[in-house]
Every structure is written in structure tokens, then in C-alpha cells.
Design a protein that fits this description.
Elements lengths: L7 E4 L4 H12 L3 E6 L22 H7 L3 E4 L5 H8 L3 E4 L11 H4 L4 E4 L16 H8 L19 H18 L1
Parallel strand pairs: 1-2, 1-4, 2-3, 4-5
Helix pairs in contact: 1-6
Amino acid sequence: MHGLRDLRIIDFSNRVSGAYATKLLADAHAEVIKVEPPEGEAQRRWTASETDLEGRDGALFQFLNTSKKSVVGRPEDPEILALIEGADLVVETFAPGEIEKLDLCERFPGLVVLSISAYGRGGPLTDQPSSDLTIQANSGAIGARGLMSHAPFMCGGRVTEWIGGTFAAVAALAATQ
């Protein structure tokens, strides 16, 4: 089975949603190249217990980035732009307006840019800060949990990031296949 072997993805994500989307695609044999910033990827050292990993990668980072290649650089670096030139898809989770500064679609016709954000790009809530709690609340998901005699509560475990990553992977497939 060849899966997605002919699909080349550049992963600029710095959140679980993007890393999970590209993990799903890498698991289906897409070539995923994770671009880490020169100052280091914060997820490498993240742990739920805040344990000092003594320079090792945390379990979450290992899970999300298995089967990926990794390079260090910034999106505007010539070496990174050369990688983008040969790619089919760029996945990013930057702040609104950041990826647009690079004019990637203009420079590389046919490139698909998948931007993952809480409230989209260009809508009335684009710049609104978000968290798992606020996304669940704004979607109405919190109202469906709990008992009538108690306040509603959110589902734990960054559920919106995992679901968002799953939907992003499906969107990537729809756009590239």
C-alpha cells in the first residue's frame, strides 16, 4: 500500500492541532518535514507534570512527531523556502496575518496552505484570544455536559485541539487528493 507517499508536507505548527493533523498524514505515509524555530520547539519539553526532562523529548512531542523529518529555520529562510517550493501542502498555526506576509500561494502556484486557528482567518473573531475552555463554551459544547442541578463543565484533555487536528487532516486530504 502506497498511501500518501507522493504527498510532501511542510509543518510549521506549534500547537497540538497542527502536529496531530500532520501526524495522521505521516502515519498514512506522507512525507512530513517539521520546521522548528531556532530557539527550539516548546512542545519538545512539555510534560503534564512539569517534570524536568533533562534535555530529552517529552512523550507528547514524541507521539505527535514520529515519522516526521525535522529541520530548524524560519519560514522566510532561503533553505526553508526551497523546501516549500517542492511541497504540496503547508500546515501552520501562526497568529493571524503571519503566514500571509510570505505570499506563499502567489510565489508557489498550486501550493495548498492549511491554516489552523480557533476562529478562522478574516472573520469577526479572528483576533479573539482562545483556549480549550473558550472554544468549548462558544460552540455550546459545555452546555450539554453535567447535571441540571450543577454548573456545566468542560471536557478535559485539549479535546478541541485533537478534534481540530482530525478535521484539519481531512481538509488537507480534500485539498490535495
